[in-house]
Amino acid sequence: MNQNDEPIITIRGLEKSFGTKEVLKGINLDVEKGQIIGYIGPNGAGKSTTVKIMLGLINEYVGEIKIFGQDISNGNVEYKKKIGYVPEVAEIYDNLTGREYLTFIGELYGLDYDAADEKAKKLMELFNLEKVYDSRISSYSKGMRQKAVIISSLLNNPDILFLDEPLSGMDANSVMVFKEVLAELASQGKTIFYSSHIMEIVEKISNRIILINDGKIVADGSFDKLKEKSMEGSLEGIFNELTGFKEHREIAEEIVSIVQGV
Ligand SMILES: Nc1ncnc2c1ncn2[C@@H]1O[C@H](COP(=O)(O)OP(=O)(O)OP(=O)(O)O)[C@@H](O)[C@H]1O
């Protein structure tokens, strides 16, 4: 196997506990260049934990992770230069303007100020944010902030993009643009690791879906392949089936009866 055929991410025997709580119980995964992975699972399943370990934000774990062929525990953080990350909750610098924030991030990635400014400005225009480029981020709406975070994750032209619920707050037009951007990036060989609870979108954009439950991978394949193995026609149905969740109606009825009982 030559170097170009090597998986871009390899995870072997990944285990992670917080105190006595075992969160990841042996994750094994090879991700190929150009894949859009939909990484899904119930609340608390360990999706963000897996991503944070890959980003080097959590250092203590059992198992081996290679990104771009390098073991990430070797102390060399160079690989991070080729990664983009949109966290579920972004701490962005409210008192900075869009321009200040994005050029700052661009410079952290090694771009010079003018290159970062030009790129950020063009991307802000394409996301309809040109008018607020010089306004403080504290004045942005939720969706506007989210777009600024997405732009910041793209400034370094990353080879792997980790997205944790990236569309929250974004309007339908922007979602449409962003979905196309992801498909286009993947077609150019970028790898996308996409975590979300919006099953309709995961179903549409991912060419490979990985479902974790109780710390283990319980499904891995294209949406069509998962459908073949299931009685369910939608990803939402497959998700319910594989996570053993059947009581939604009973739970809903109980909630309503408690609400009405006050
Ligand atoms: N720093 C931490 N300290 C202690 N427990 C943690 C920590 N981070 C995560 N956990 C626990 O690990 C489990 C997995 O959390 P994680 O955030 O990875 O889940 P998730 O699959 O991303 O969930 P969600 O869909 O709700 O975002 C949860 O039980 C959570 O409480």
**What would CATH call the homologous superfamily?**
P-loop containing nucleotide triphosphate hydrolases
Strands, count: 10
For the biggest sheet, the summary is: 6 strands, mixed
Question: How many domains make up the 3D coordinates?
Answer: 1
Uncertain stretches: none
Arithmetic mean pLDDT: 90
Oligomer: single chain
Structural description of this entry:
- With 262 residues, the chain is α/β, with parallel strands linked by helices.
- The protein has a single domain, classed as Rossmann fold (3-Layer(aba) Sandwich), CATH 3.40.50.300.
- It has nine helices and ten strands.
- It has a six-stranded mixed sheet, sandwiched between helices. It has a four-stranded antiparallel sheet with strand order 2-1-4-5, covered by helices on one side.
- A hairpin with a 2-residue loop joins strand 9 and strand 10.
- The longest helix is centred in the C-terminal third of the chain and has 16 residues.
- The chain is globular and about 55 Å long.
- The mean pLDDT is 90.
